[in-house]
Amino acid sequence: MIRLLLVDDESLIRRGLKALLKLEADLEIVGEGENGIDAIAQVEKLQPDVVLMDIRMPIMDGVAATRQICQQFSNTKILVFTTFADEDYVAQALRYGAAGYLLKDTPSEELAQAIRMVHKGYTQLGPGIGKVMEQIPVISKSTPPGWDELTPRELDILKLIAKGASNREIAETLYIAEKTVKNNVTRILDRLNLRDRTQAAIIASSLLGVDN
């Protein structure tokens, strides 16, 4: 069972999300919050697996909450739930450790699947916010140390990571074993000195021009 915290300043959106996600047998809504302060307090109290985090909220926004939660509660994944107008905020949230983002018009079945993938440790980068990757200042167009050591296979895997593909999907696409994909991903992260798949996706999107 995936324990889920819903954070949005609009109660109508929270109620709608709760009604939709309660239909998923493997998702459990353990709490709600209406701002970043609520989110931090609820994470500390409830220890959810995944936080579905709105960005623009009063008192404390989702970016600041994401930063603090990622620093203090490393076992909790954050999936930003946003709109087209929030590119700057999304870029900051990703930089601070969010596992990905989705737009608020995402169909419920896709949202549920994204929550599952984030819980498993995969990156979820939704479509529609084209400039997000360009706005993350820690990523430049210059190649990072270790980039030139990547093999063609590893570059192919990086491209698929940037598209949000799971290890199984990468294995099926490249006709290799899932364990081989996992080993390659580990080498990529080590070689490029990256923290996780989210950073790998950002690097790939920036340097390989991947359109997810």
Question: Could you give a quick summary of the protein structure above?
Answer:
With 212 residues, the protein is an alpha/beta fold. It has helices spanning 11-21, 36-46, 62-72, 87-95, 108-119, 152-162, 167-174, 178-192, 197-208, and strands at residues 2-7, 27-33, 50-54, 77-82, 100-103, 124-125.
Task: Describe this protein's structure.
InterPro entries: CheY-like_superfamily, NreC/VraR/RcsB-like_REC, Sig_transdc_resp-reg_C-effctor, Sig_transdc_resp-reg_receiver, Tscrpt_reg_LuxR_C, WalR-like. This is DNA-binding response regulator. Keywords: DNA-binding, Phosphoprotein. The chain has 212 residues and is of the alpha/beta class. It folds into 2 domains: 128 residues, Rossmann fold, CATH 3.40.50; 62 residues, Winged helix-like DNA-binding domain superfamily/Winged helix DNA-binding domain (Arc Repressor Mutant, subunit A). Helix content is 47%, strand content 14%. It contains 9 helices and 6 strands, in the order βαβαβαβαβαβαααα. It has a 6-stranded parallel β-sheet with strand order 2-1-3-4-5-6, sandwiched between helices. Helix 3 packs parallel to helix 4, helix 6 packs across helix 9 and helix 7 packs across helix 8. The protein is globular.
